[in-house]
Amino acid sequence: MTAYFSDFDNLPLNQSTLRASALTCVRGERTLFTDLDLQVSAGEWLHIRGENGIGKTSLLRLLAGLTAPAAGSISWNDQSIVADASEYHRNLLFLGHRDSLKEDLTAFENLSIVTALDGVTVSEDEILFALHRFGLRGREDLPVNCLSAGQKRRVLLARLLLRKAKLWILDEPFNALDVRAVEMLSELIGEHIAAGGMAIMTSHQEIPMPNGRVVQL
Questions:
Q1: Claim to verify: residue 47 and residue 80 sit in the same structural domain
Q2: 191, part of any domain
Q3: Contact call for residues 126 and 162 (beta carbons, < 8 A)
């Protein structure tokens, strides 16, 4: 097993905390949830669960600062995430279940582009390492439209190894993955948590990792 190495700032672990208080989410004329409180700190992760359409993805988008709550507040290290959005997003990696790749580009080219957009400087070897970690050795230079749905998902998830964020917010990260890929992703998330990272994710399946809590919507 190749180790996962964090690249976090020298922030004391007990100061890395995301906290949401009395959140209310409204979509159209429908209230999805109200007065929701949650907290996750360094070395912890949350499993957001609930029926389809109940607001799991909407909650993740609120926590990622992509949409605003109808009521309530979200803070990172006791500061509102809207007070210094750039600082918060520097510590955040959000992967949505609808994230897509440029089909005419290779897996390697897709990761090169997304890391550049993230403002992250990575070497060719680091990109190759990330793809190989997710079982894509030999497929680095194939156009994405030649890959299966599960392989495309692995390309997206390889970004986790390149964008060294403290907080991972992952929407259905295990979708379209085979058993081995699920194991690899679980190992990677576990390494991230053990290194003082944090994660919030949705999934329809059980996630056998320590230090997790379930938030039921």
A1: yes
A2: yes
A3: yes
